[in-house]
Amino acid sequence: MSVSVAKTSGGVRQAVAVGSLAATTVGLSFVAQVVLVLWLGSGYETDAFFAAAVVPQVLFDLLVGSLALALTPLLVAAPAERRRRDAWTLVWAVGLLFAGVAGLLAATVSVWSGWLLPGMTRVELQLVEGLMRVSVVGAVFLAMSTVAGAALKASERFAAAERATATAAVAGLLVLLTTLPWLGVVAAPLAWVIRMATELALVTVALKGPVRPDLRSPVLPAAARKAWPLIAGSFVFRTDLLFDRLLSSMAPTGGLTLLALGRQLHHAAARLIGKALVATVGPRLTVLWGEARTDEFFAAYRKRRRLTLAAAAGAFLCVLTAAAVSAWLAPESQFAGALVLLVALGGILLFEPLAQLGGVTHFARGDTATPARYAAITFVASVGLRLIGFYWLGLVGVALGASAYFVLQAAWLNRSVFTRTGSALYQADPSTTAPPPSRRQAA
């Protein structure tokens, strides 16, 4: 009993520590964007910044929401003596890959920016292109630090990973506050690049690296097999941000900024819940499934699902309360009109953490194809809903379509936890395989 209590209290302390650090990161990130909007006003410059940030943001969501969650169970399965070398092999490989992607995007942005943002003038597009060329540099640092962070989490060093992220967020905010008065909107992507470089340096220290990569390591083909279906599917559904920018670029000036800021607020809160309650349960689920302890596996999943839903509901009420108070205190402010958008976007905060939990549970069983398939299906449905919504309700319709995506994905993924099985990534004994759960066990 004492051992069980110690494990439970240790898990609670870890979740509180990770949640506190993640909350700091989320708060600092959102403060930075609010400072930018308050300094420059909600106009064409902030519209250009949020439009330029969409490609790095897609990469960020792709890495944090997909690649890191897929790699963590894979690194958990690696022997302790090889985990560090395998981690750095993946860091270097992913860094080289995203360096090529960033270079291609920077070289061709003037070709496709007009197609992505048809409602912007040529002057606005030139500003977008310049800001985007700066932003994609940070995407390379982000890719490498994300994989390094996944290695820390595979060793259950969640607090170390979040401490590096929070410290880097402080550095980014300080750079923004220092350079904004004399660089204007250009200070925002510059601060983001410095933030990502700082985070990479800190996780490098935490991993005691860098280490020379082992290009013959079996972790590379294993990572490609596990991550590729998920990344492909996730890339499809994360392009919903691109679609939102396309529609909101045709809205009145400042509308793109308000929609983007509202989305990021909800996503930031959902990501906070994901880091504190979803990511921390992934390694345990991987081990339980690999050791064929299916009753404990489903019990741990159900308990974490209840906690996640309660945290999401509480966070949504806090966001709405803060927005309502702000609108009441400053009825003529540019944020007063964002209250309706925040309500319409509420499905993101309420259901994105549940979708993450469903994905993590599938990853723990070695199944990355199912989350990718559901992501693609729900993306197609949400695109249609956004088009119809924009036609009838403008930006509010786009917001409702964005919420619908996470509602559908959360429902399908969490239902399929009990109807689909996978292969164990971790096994206590090489001859042991995880049996599929029976209907009685899943009930």
Structural description of this entry:
This protein is an all-alpha fold. 82% of the residues lie in helices and 0% in strands. Helix 1 packs antiparallel against helix 10 and helix 8 packs parallel to helix 15. The longest helix is centred in the first third of the chain and has 39 residues, at 2-40. It starts with a helix and ends with a helix. 51% of the residues are buried. The model is unreliable at 1-9 and 425-443 (pLDDT under 50).
Give the beta-strand count.
0
Roughly what is the average pLDDT, rounded to an integer? 83
3D shape: globular
How much strand? under 5%
Write the layout of secondary structure elements.
Layout: H1 2-40, H2 44-52, H3 54-77, H4 80-116, H5 122-154, H6 158-183, H7 187-206, H8 219-238, H9 240-248, H10 255-278, H11 282-290, H12 294-329, H13 339-344, H14 346-364, H15 369-393, H16 395-416, H17 439-442
Helix pairs in contact: 1-6, 1-10, 2-5, 2-10, 3-5, 3-8, 3-14, 4-5, 5-6, 5-7, 6-7, 8-15, 9-15, 10-12, 10-14, 11-12, 11-14, 12-14, 14-16, 15-16
Question: Key terms for this structure?
Answer:
443 residues; mainly alpha; 82% helix; globular; disordered N terminus; disordered C terminus
Quick structural summary:
With 443 residues, the protein is mainly α.
